[in-house]
Amino acid sequence: MEFLVTVAEFSLWLLLIVLFGFLSVVVFEAWRRRHSNVSVETTTLDDPKSIKPIPCPHITDPAEKYLSLIVPAYNEELRLPAALEETMDYLQDRASRDKSFSFEVVIVDDGSVDGTKRVAFDFIRKYTIDNIRVIPLGKNQGKGEAIRKGMLHSRGQLLLMLDADGATKVTDLEKLENQINAVAREEYSIRNPASKDMDFKIGDVQVSAFGSRAHLEEKALATRKWYRNFLMKGFHLVVLLAAGPGIRDTQCGFKMFTRAAARRLFTNVHLKRWCFDVELVYLCKRFNIPMVEISVKWSEIPGSKVSMLSIPNMLWELALMSVGYRTGMWKIHQV
């Protein structure tokens, strides 16, 4: 028998989630203030060729690479190798054709208990730690936190987040890159009319680009069961209420930021799991960071960790975000 979801039940659950969210934010803020003097653990890099951890760079440091690719990985022993091989083939081929192109791949191991770390180390041995780096989180903290750590400790002028399963073709990063470049140059010329083009540095202008699967929605609606479509539509409505219009597909795991935008956004993001993407949209609007949404090629890869059961958790996080910002309990940090 199929599970029936009524509008009344959905509304009731949403109300309960909002109420619990409010209480959670109050408790969390009280705990944070009480423990605000606790030191923050220093993030380090793992190097298979050294027994000593390597200190990480920080997003506030000057850029050392043109492009950083941040890959969150939780138990991705099986899916990570093929995605990394395809990514490295593309990056090395581009670097051979363009001597000014430099890159790094930052794998954030989100507390994996399988062979994810071993796979990442194999790639470091093959491509060197200058091109591939591993940040261990120790225990599982969530995709949002993994990406936040990767962004904060990357060296690129442009920073791309992408999933470990390779669902989006890495070559599509050029679509995002070209749009960011166009918007950044326009923003730069408006704010610096007297400056010459040679003074332009793409990493210094705040722009964000969101990969999108919205063009595939019609086909997905036709193949999913009606109650799954109902839940997804309900989730999209809540996202619209929480973050406002502008981005149709907030959950695509393929997003690019200039270094200036990443510095502003990822020093402020609070959510640690699935809905951090929605918070990024909210923060872009809060900071007036230009956003562009670009269609990308996407294919379903077996082994996804997102299911319909994830939606209640997503609604919970959206309630936390809404209450946190609207009550002023979540502070905005100026970088």
TrEMBL record:
Pathway: Protein modification; protein glycosylation. GO terms for biological process: protein N-linked glycosylation. Keywords: Endoplasmic reticulum, Glycosyltransferase, Membrane, Signal-anchor, Transferase, Transmembrane, Transmembrane helix. The chain crosses the membrane at residues 12-31. It is found in: Endoplasmic reticulum membrane. Its main location: endoplasmic reticulum. Its EC number is 2.4.1.117. It holds the Pfam family Glycos_transf_2. It is an enzyme of class 2 (transferase). One of its GO terms (molecular function) is dolichyl-phosphate beta-glucosyltransferase activity. It catalyses: a di-trans,poly-cis-dolichyl phosphate + UDP-alpha-D-glucose = a di-trans,poly-cis-dolichyl beta-D-glucosyl phosphate + UDP. It is a single-pass membrane protein. Residues 68-182 form the Glycosyltransferase 2-like domain. One of its GO terms (cellular component) is endoplasmic reticulum membrane. It comes from the Eukaryota. Belongs to the glycosyltransferase 2 family. This is dolichyl-phosphate beta-glucosyltransferase. It comes from Arabidopsis suecica (Swedish thale-cress).
